[in-house]
């Protein structure tokens, strides 16, 4: 079974990160098999990326532009800065959604809906 994370199983850790539900994201997920990387070696780094991605996303959100920092540059400056910030946040959200999709695909290949390991 997967190494327990501080928040529970790997699937719970992924779910706790706030599932992103971007339906257009369908990255290629690895196939768990006897000669490949073990399930923990596949899932654990993905869960770590999601946890750190959430921290990064929260930090990035705090850098949202405020009009008081742009008004001296003209009327359009804040709007442009806001649009650029939104685009950065969107790219990060899409990247995390791809990682989440891969993590869930690996998890679902290894465990059934009850969290029990599937037969090899």
How many beta-strand elements? Answer: 0
Q: Main beta sheet, described?
A: none
Radius of gyration: 19 Å
- Give the strand content: under 5%
Q: How far is the first residue's CA from the last residue's CA?
A: 13 Å
Q: How would you spell out the order of helices and strands?
A: HHH
Helix content: 55-70%
Arithmetic mean pLDDT: 83
Principal-axes geometry comes out as: rod-shaped
- Integer count of domains: 1
- Counting DSSP H or I runs of 4 or more residues, the number of helices is 3
Which structural class best describes the helix and strand composition?
A: mainly alpha
**Which residues form runs of ≥5 with pLDDT under 50?**
1-8
How would you characterize this protein structure?
The chain has 120 residues and is mostly helical. It has one domain. Helices cover 55% and strands 0% of the residues. The chain has three helices and no strands. The protein has helices at residues 10-16, 39-61, 75-110. Helix 2 packs antiparallel against helix 3 (75-110). It is rod-shaped and about 65 Å long. The two termini are 13 Å apart. The relative contact order is 0.20. Residues 1-8 have low confidence and may be disordered.
